Amino acid sequence: MKVLITGAHGKVGRAVTQAMIAAGHEVRTTDLTRPGYERKPEGTPKYTMADLTDAGQAYAVVHGAEAVVHVAAIPEPTGHPPHVVFQTNLMATFNVLEAAIRFGVKRFVYISSETVPGFFFPERDFLPDYAPVDEEHPVHPQDPYALSKHFGEQLMDAAVARSDIRCISIRPCWVQYEGNYETNLGPQVRDASVLSPNLWSYIDAYDLADAIVLATGSDLPGHEVFYIASPDNVGGHDFAESLAKYYGDAIELRELDRKDASGISSAKAQRMLGWVPKRSWRDYLDTDGKSLAT
């Protein structure tokens, strides 16, 4: 397919671009980074700089695409004023989706966020009702980033109700790649008491990219939402034991499919998309949380 990837120069966008090309798709990319004018390596996808909060620029880059993977967004709420985060993320999503509908794009993959239920940046204390968290968990977005992502998912619902487009929303966990495993996850590998808001969950950027490729090629109708998380937790700790130790009975423990289970379940994605995660923190870090590359 002819696939447009927005936000192509971020850590997720780069991994998805590589995976899409490897899967044989004809890829075009867009981001806010200024284009360079040196000779490009063979196979480099066509790149167009665009501000997707501008409807005209969004329409220009979407035109001709058969599928859109919308990754572009301000990725968290703390580095910009709240109204900038919300307006940027929501209007970019609206413009790209509206262009996709008008141009007859058949598949739209929206990169939402694990923060939609209320994780990571709550203005009031938040704990999930149960774990592992799945797509049925109630949502309580409390910050402008999570709220923009939640509304983005609602835009997908509206799109399939008024057009023939098919939408998939992906909620990735905390995304890791070669360059940040040790910094981000090393402390948790060494000590489970170093808590993270998502119950020791994470996802490798390349496993996430594989899931996005599957979503892009999926013939699922309507709009489906999928969490994408590694099946194991950071550090490989006994999940039930750690949950009870650090959260008491505040979070209901539901059935686990493995002792070292993630706090977020990707069972739906494995079942409906055929996604099979291949990578783990163990491929990058030793049991002391130190990089295996050093």
For the structure shown, list the relevant keywords.
single chain; 294 residues; alpha/beta; Rossmann fold; seven-stranded parallel beta sheet; two-stranded parallel ribbon; 8 helices; 11 strands; 15% strand; globular
* Helix/strand class: alpha/beta
Radius of gyration: 19 Å
- Count of helical regions: 8
Unreliable spans: none
Tell me what portion of residues adopts beta-strand conformation. 15-25%
Shape: globular
Q: Identify the CATH architecture.
A: 3-Layer(aba) Sandwich
Provide the CATH top-level class. Alpha Beta
- Domain count, please report it: 1
Question: Share of helix among residues?
Answer: 25-40%
CATH fold topology: Rossmann fold
Average of per-residue pLDDT values: 95
Helix-strand topology string: EHEEHEHEEHEEHEHEHEH
Summarize the structure in words.
The protein has 294 residues and is an alpha/beta fold. The protein contains 8 helices and 11 strands. It has one domain: NAD(P)-binding Rossmann-like Domain (Rossmann fold), CATH 3.40.50. The strands form 3 sheets. The chain has a 7-stranded parallel β-sheet, sandwiched between helices. A two-stranded parallel sheet has the order 6-11. It is globular, with a radius of gyration of 19 Å. The N and C termini lie far apart (40 Å). 47% of the residues are buried.
Summarize the structure.
The protein is α/β, with parallel strands linked by helices. The protein has helices at residues 11-22, 55-62, 82-102, 144-162, 181-190, 205-217, 239-247, 267-272; strands at residues 2-6, 26-31, 46-49, 67-70, 107-111, 130-131, 166-172, 175-176, 203-204, 223-228, 252-253. Helix 5 (181-190) links the parallel strand 8 and strand 9.
